Amino acid sequence: MSELGLLQVYTGPGKGKTTAALGLTLRAWGRGLRVCIIQFMKVGEDYGEIIAVRKLPGVDLLQFGRDALIKKGEHTAEDIGLARAGLAKVREVLTNGRYDIVILDEINVVVDFGMLTADEVLRVVRARSNGVEVVMTGRNAPPEFIEEADLVTEMACVKHPYESGIMARPGVEY
Hints:
Layout (H helix, E strand, L loop, with lengths): L6 E5 L5 H14 L4 E6 L7 H6 L5 E6 L12 H19 L5 E5 L1 H6 L5 H9 L6 E5 L5 H6 L2 E4 L20
Parallel strand pairs: 1-5, 1-6, 2-3, 2-4, 4-5
């Protein structure tokens, strides 16, 4: 579709950035578009959305990161290596002609944590083939991503069940 090719950023402190990107995945898949989701940091197989996405023909999910929670300032050389491997895969996926939409899940956090720079990520994104839509998710999107984007959505948390002691629930939060 010639209308594709924009850059979208989903950011902010509220819940729903990855969920919104997955909703877009479902919409695109329903229209026959080919989607690749590249996940940084938030990896593992215990998420309901991962289970579902793996069942969708024409949607590929690639994960780059350890199956562990990483806090800012506590990433390892292994985490940086995985982020760099992920970015190399992004470069390939954005130019191989196989995908209409590419989602870079948690890429904003990777940059915020200092595992990759905004400039190196933008160089790869700018080199994408014509007509490839890119979605970048995660808290704390760098100003460079916001400036470059055609669409920026900021998720704000107004109220969350965690505040009243309700823990993450399968099928709703993961």
